[in-house]
Amino acid sequence: MLIDIKDLFKIYNEGKESEVRALDGIDLQIDRGEFVSIIGQSGSGKSTLMNILGCLDIPTYGDYHLDGTDVTELSDRQLAHIRNKQIGFIFQGYNLIPALSARENVELPLIYQGIGIDERHERSEAALERVAMFDRSSHKPSEMSGGQQQRVAIARAIATHPSIIMADEPTGALDSKTGRHVLEILHGLHEDGTTIILITHDNGIAATAERIVRLSDGKIVSDGTREEVGL
Fold it and tell me: What number is the average pLDDT over the span 116-128?
């Protein structure tokens, strides 16, 4: 079991009149190598869940074991280490650094890992090649289209060789054709054994995953294949 969450709560303003239960007793298990989409409307809790799954936030209550480690007991520094080593993030807004070239953006997390310059170059070249962006290695984000920026963001996510890719609305800012290409890249990574967790509000995009988890009001209301959840 790669991810094991039990009775997870994320509560804001607990005990007050303005209390919000962003997550309200979540149980979720994800095996290594799965492709899971987490779907829900705005306010359903899906982004909060991704932030906790990705060790960007901690729950108010509940258990979260990642690859056997109880991450709720870890320090901020230990959580940062897990994020950098085990998880690759892809965001709707790309989150590239404007002053850096595509290659420099991809190499940044490798610098944080303390990887030497030769290996950094090898990994960044391989990652950019994987997403068909090697010929734009020296270009800065302002010189690229949205789809190209997202492909660089994917290259940055995979250059660290993470066991998990978490993609938060990765096609949200893209046209449909470019969005399909991004999904094809994610499915190719899944075929290579990477665990993919895709956050989306779009039924059509969610339906490309082999397993769909639907959230509403901080609770899981369905979990299964396309047929089982009615997509």
Answer: 95
- The predicted pLDDT at position 129 comes to 95
> What predicted TM-score, i.e. pTM, was given to this entire model?
0.92
pLDDT in tens, 37-61: 999 998 899 999 999 999 999 999 9
Tell me: the pLDDT tens digits for 131-174?
999 999 999 999 999 999 999 999 999 999 999 999 999 888 88
Give me the sheet containing 211-216, strands edge to edge.
87-91, 164-168, 195-200, 35-39, 211-216, 219-224
Measuring CA to CA, which residue among 230, 227, 220 is closest to residue 8?
Answer: 220
Q: What is the 3-state secondary structure (H, E, C) of the chain?
A: CCEEEEEEEEEECCCCCCCEEEEEEEEEEECCCCEEEEECCCCCCHHHHHHHHCCCCCCCEEEEEECCEEHHHCCHHHHHHHHHHHEEEEECCCCCCCCCCHHHHHHHHHHHCCCCHHHHHHHHHHHHHHCCCHHHCCCCHHHCCHHHHHHHHHHHHHHCCCCEEEEECCCCCCCHHHHHHHHHHHHHHHHCCCEEEEEECCHHHHCCCCEEEEEECCEEEEEECHHHHCC
Distance CA 225, CA 150 (A): 27
